[in-house]
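Schema walkthrough. Field components (list of strings):
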Amino acid sequence: MNTNYILSKKTKQVFLSISVIGSLLIALSFLLENPDNKQVWMNVLLNNLYFLFLSLFGALFIALHKIAHSGWHVSLKRIPEALSTFLPYSAALMFLLIFGMHDLYHWSHHDLHDPIIKGKSAYLNLPFFFIRMAVYFAGWIGLSYLLRKNSISQDLSDNYKFHKQGRILAALFMAFFAISSSTMTWDWIMSVDPHWYSTLFGWYVFIGLFVSGIAAFILIIALLKSQGYIDFVNKEHLHDLGKYLFGFSIFWMYLWFFQYMLIWYSHIPEETVYFAQRLNGFPILFFAILVLNFVFPFLALMTRNSKRNIKWLAMVAAVVLIGQWLNIYLMLSPGILGETAQIGLIEIGSACLYLGGFLFVVFNALSKKPLLCKNDPFLEESFHYET
Amino acid sequence: MYVSPIREPLIKGNKTYSQITKDIAAPIEGKPGKAWYMGLTISLSAMFFGLAMMGYTVWEGIGTWGLNRTIGWGWGITNFVWWVGIGHAGTFISAILLLFRQKWRTSINRSAEAMTIFAVMCAGLFPLIHMGRPLLAFFVFPYPNTRGLWVNFNSPLLWDVFAISTYLLVSLLFWYMGLIPDIGTMRDRVTSKAKKYIYGLLSFGWTGSVKHWQRHEKLSLILAGLAAPLVLSVHSIVSSDFATAIIPGWHTTIFPPYFVAGAIFSGFAMVLTLLIVTRKVLNLENYITLSHIESMNKIIIATGSIVGIAYMTELFISWYSGVEYEQYAFLNRATGPYWWAYAIMMTCNVISPQLLWFRKLRRNLVFTFILSIFINIGMWFERFVIIVTSLHRDYLPSSWSMYSPTIVEVGIFIGTLGLFFSCFLLFIRVFPVIAIAEIKTVIKSSGEKETKNETL
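Field assembly_structure (string):
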């Protein structure tokens, strides 16, 4: 069984060409569409967040399953571990915002004469914003690095002490993530509409993160399998991941619905303005997001066989990934660009540029370590189980 | 199915299949002890006291309660939400934990489901009595009256009626369906003719044939599928009773998932309260092991922390919103005249469960028992804080008011506690506390193996 992934030249070229196409589209956009600074920064923030979420999912998946004493996932764990290696790049890209704050965040301007924003200045101010950013990334990168290191150390030793240490790291990560996952969404997403607030917002974004992460996980498995690797990943694993995708798509819809319904029902203008702007300005996108993220995966993954068929599952995952990207787009762009914003070449181009880079980092990380871990006390369970 | 040797066994004492049946059926076949009679006497007296207070309320009217024009919901709705919350553990264990392949649930699902049903019954009483004239309950059913008027479908209070009655129905079916093979076992074991006849009727002619098992399994799957979304929907809709309003402290979008987490939190606390005593009294320590207690404690710390984060989120966003009324509502919660209720809620729900990060405490029975009582109290106060402190201040200071319950309201609450414990005490005498058929499915993979050549 070949467990060492080799990042072939051809694959590298594919990733590179995705990025090159993205760059060309961006260049074309500058020629044809003449995007302003705001739009450029919106794209940076959008893709920063999107790929940060996929990467954070990697660390979260490992930590969550470790503290839950899960056995089924162990043979797959190198893939989410590889996803988490993008975190340092995310951090670097995120700190680029230093140059784009005024274009993205209305609250970052001085002399606003806005008493509501002024009331929030103890939280929404530039130094604190970047201090928080540094704390989040320090925690995420530090703990996910240690988790990956721990898992690799276990490969070399049959001492269970690594297993125990890993659980402690996982618990630390979960505690840190539980708080930072909410606060990061207030900082980076909710504050683009600085007057608006919703207590559910953090959890709503978090579920989107989880769903898109699962979808990315499935697609990477499909890609590796198509190149003839990881034949130890069987239909039971796919079935479980399919159930995750199915279940958490429903959960995403649940949170979406209750956030919307409670605001709609109470009909307080300060709150409804958020949805009014999105529903009136982007009616097609607004409903397309619901179809792509809930209706489609709900219907497509309902039967048992649909979750065990890798091609079908990968197709659904791809649709959900697009849906979640659009979801973040609709959270950001009306607040930054207003109701006239449109998805143009620059949006597609920047997404491609980021995607190529992200894939390269992740697959490069996969090629560095064996795809199948060793010595994990739950590893055997991952081969012999039925869903 | 392979099980890693480092996993703790779920059934201790090297049991065989027949021993399992014997051990679990023993409490039903033997005579109840003095403690059981005493418990039942106390519970029944509490229940009758509550019934008397309910009768008094219906006879005299809601004026016998401590409610006033500003605070229209007090203990009644607090108790209602508290009981519904407790009724969440059962279905969570049997549906959600089933989906996540948590085998340890087989030791606790039966009693947790029974508890769920009793708790939902207690919960349902409160809206009924709160109507003042229980006959008015007829008008919550979606049925047009002679003038062609329908119920108000826009009201979350009506959604509650549907959500909770569906939940009760599905939980009851789920519980009973799981009981059928065990009732069949009991029918075959009991010696008295009358008992044999009754268990025979209740078992619906269960023979244990392959066909019966096939249908049983299929129905289990369907009901689990139905029950899983119900775990979320019930308390989400209960939370809508508050969150759809525009009262500061009630209108917050995090309510649905946070209520669900809180419900599972309090449900598991009640399961622990009951099972720590039950396992000891009925000699079931080999089936409900310390490892089970630890797993439940882990759920408690997870859901307790989620609830804690929700409290903090509410506090933060109320400040962040810049809305003066929101800010005041939360400041008043913590520092106003009901600060003590808020302090109890915070201590019991957020701070004390954090001790469960220590493995030693997670496996300590006395500590767990005390903590579970703490959480029961804390979660009751959470609802009290949400309802009473949010209501007692109004937009007009002339409407400000205070609330304290009368003996009638307290009596009704005690009555439901009595009803709950009476039902549970009767349940453990009549039906197997642990699902015999289900726990047998895990003995091979997760039973303790002391000798290699065990006979089956």
